[in-house]
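Continuing the series of single-chain predictions for the mutant panel. This is the parent chain; the variants come on the following pages.
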Amino acid sequence: MTTGTSTSTTPGPATVLAWRDYDPAACELPGMFLGELATPGPLSGASDRLWHLGARRVRLPGTVDLSAGTDPARAAATVNALSLVRDLTARAVLVEWDLRLGPAAGDDWQVLSHLQPPRRIEGPAGSDEALTAWRRGHYLCKCLWRKGPGFVQIRDRRWGELRRFTADEPEYEAAIERLAYGAPAPSVPSAVLDDFRSERLVLDVGPLAWWVPYRISRWLQESMAI
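Parent structure:
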């Protein structure tokens, strides 16, 4: 399997609220609120732009909706928001967001459990228990990918144990580059996509398939120990 960086030009959420500190009490001090910030430009660079503006706590508008069915516009909005949560999580930014699960969500929350936990989960029975488990089990570097010379490696601890996948086939890297900010499932080679789906490394959102792991921007500890 493989990964890479995306050249997506898809815009993210139109605006977010941002603060200069992680601590809500510190955020009440004068000068800590950055205001309502627009996120123009390619989604692939949105987290970097927010970081360099000083954002360390970011609140997304609305609710990230995984119950959108097959509606393309709603699916795209969901994927865009998930991408921003993923990329900000990789930077160890505190992300405040809300999630809505569909009635047949199953363990979709666990697929996303490497992301900063949402403030609330709307949806089927058991959502409160899922949110509690998510918060208790979350830590940085839980599901990540890294690129080496001629290979890509994914390290995944979402299910409790370490699952490690390494691949050097170029078609996998090309697929990950395409999936990073969402792509129509038929646009990805079916054999590659099936491999990713079998390992829960992509999430299907309506007609789109979205790459789940993040490329870490801030290591929790030395990289050899992750």
